[in-house]
User: What shape does this take?
Amino acid sequence: MTKVVIIDDEVNARDSLKQLLNLYCPDVTVVGDADSVASGIECILSNNPDLVFLDIKMPDGTGFDLLSRIKKINFKIIFVTAYEEFALKAFKFNAIDYLTKPLEPEELVNAVSKGSTHSNDESVNESIKLLIENISKPSVPHKKIVLKTLNTIHVVEIDHIIRCESDRNYTAFHLVDQEHILISRSMREFEEMLEGYGFFRVHNSHLINLNFVSSFKKDELILVLKDNTTIPVAYRKRDELLSIIRSL
Assistant: This one.
């Protein structure tokens, strides 16, 4: 049984989440709830939850303030937020689970399912640290992305990503140090996430970092990267890719 704590300053929001968990998540039990940063800290320390649903904005601070005051985060976190788009992108960059209000049952079930899996304290703390940094400086472009596998968290410089390759519902990241990281998320998610950072999807299966382009054999529709990898280019992407390369 997964022990859950809910921290939200709106009593209706807390009650609604409790009802949804009761209806759709039978393996979850709510062991406590709170309406502020101060009472939330007390609730967490008293109940030792496995999973915390955490609102962002509260009367006496933010969910980030709460986390910064807990010495050891040994629980999973699902943020519940009505934040604007830049903040949601920051959540994605740092592999932090979040739900937007109003809550949808299917999304809640998926989040709880992921939140019930094992994660070490270091990975949670590193993700939170980077998230707070990105949220607090929305005008500064992201320099790092968190790639989370089942047992490991990888903090990767965006400039070190050579390319991404789709493998059904997985995405393989190929890095400059020849490391390969396989993530159980679709490449469409990463394509949206990396938009504006010099990446271009040349093929259904390939998203490339334009900084690593060595040459383009336009008649053969073959792209050669600086690591000597050859990547097929979809015909429908040919002219757009040529235009981008000429502007580099």
In short: The first helix runs from residue 11 to 24. DSSP finds eight helices and 17 strands in the chain. Helices lie at 11-24, 37-47, 63-68, 85-93, 105-115, 121-136, 187-193, 238-247. The chain has a mean pLDDT of 88.
